[in-house]
Amino acid sequence: MAAGEWVRGGGDRVAGVPDSVLVANRGEIARRVIRTARRLGVRAIAVYSEADADLPYVKEADESVLIGPAAAKDSYLNVPNILAAAKQTRAHSIHPGYGFLAESADFAQQVIDAGLTWIGPPPQAIDQMGDKIRARNLMAKAGVPVAAGTQDPVQDVQEALQKAEAIGYPVMIKAAAGGGGIGMSVAADPDQLRKGFETARTRAERFFSSPAILLERYISSARHVEIQILGLADGQVIALGERDCSVQRRHQKVAEETPSPGVSPELRSRMFEAARKAGEAVNYAGAGTVECLVDTQTGDFVFLEMNTRLQVEHPVTEMVTGIDLVEQQLLIADGLAANIPAQSFQPNGCALELRVYAEDPVRFLPSPGTITQWDEPAGPGVRVDAGYAAGNVVTPYYDPLLAKLVIHGATRDEALERARQAVAGFTITGLKTNLPFHADLLNSSQFGSGDYDTSVVSHLRP
Amino acid sequence: MAEIRAEMVANVWKVVAVEGDAVADGDTLVILESMKMEIPVLAESSGKLTRLAVAEGDVIQEGDLIAVIE
To answer: What ipTM is given for this predicted complex?
Structure first.
């Protein structure tokens, strides 16, 4: 697929996909889903908060509905208002994007109960994977490798100290209902565990309304590698390739690439097999991602969690397989066979994604503001999934993702060189962005060599 | 006297210190939230916290006064 194919829109509707789709999200992902919907001739409906009225996705949709004030709980998390917008616009289906309500089994069920098509996996699968402890136990039963850790929520510090003794330090402290790295910390000894446990509980309660905590053995040098799966309408689960997401700050991804430079063909085939088993264990349908950690010392991998939705970094898989994952989601949601050409299983070349955040490039602190200039790079192998344009205000209410710079090359070196040029050719003024960080990353010998783990950002920004 | 001002637009999530407290360099005074991230505001000197200009739930702009330490 050429990069240019992403901008086609308003075609005749492809037989079998839903007649219309309401995108219950905002920014770059809403725009990206709307783009595919319009290309397939599917009527695209945007919803937006008062803070987002001027964003490109609202203008590019066929219809748009204001669903509430800026605060997410009053708009993008406001289920009654979203369902009312769907009714008002006679939408046939709802695509949740990622974040917000994408992994709410309850929302998925309400969408289905309202007589709409849910563009996502069955609510039961979301529920089974939503709790990390349950998910890990389920995966272990299905024969997927998991990290040593607690099999039930840890109730208090005393129990945490006991369990950590058995697992062995260092341990990772996590919110069972969590995601996005919030509330996660590493404890090297009982003292750090006492501190980290309390912090994790407070945050878990605040962000995920559940104080349940789990402990896992911490792998000191790991790569974060995830497998894209598709559950087909006939029940078969296929693996479409891996993404290396080891470039992280505060446990959140900043850059991703495929194929992973740290995964051998033999390890890849074992990981694909585990990912298929994971999907089949929950009767998975549609696009999902099985996240794993690869221990760089032993070469083994363990299951981390499953994301039951489209992933932020899905474009790198699209760039090397030629598959439009949103198109497949629409087809599968309507019970149709996915339309996957056989050559997809032989990925073509290498792809990188650089997340462009509104944040200072040294301390990574948020930098909301008004965008005065916005000039995107273009060229062979360059795709930009952007949520904003010149004149837009980036508010403090939502995450700092401005755009995803996605680069394809025949080889990793070619992709890196194209990425360097694309970063240099991306001009955003009016607020701080992490583009200078990406320039440093692409020029660093560690990232350049491919021999890096999840500590790569801390080496660049000590 | 040292004034501490906001570096960015943010919501005041938690007020940790109390007006009149003796604070040390590096103590957390207030925790802000912006773009789904918690940002602790720290005392940049030791002294008495003579003024705390924000309350939980406030939306503050870049440059707004947060606290005064004397």
So the answer is: 0.79
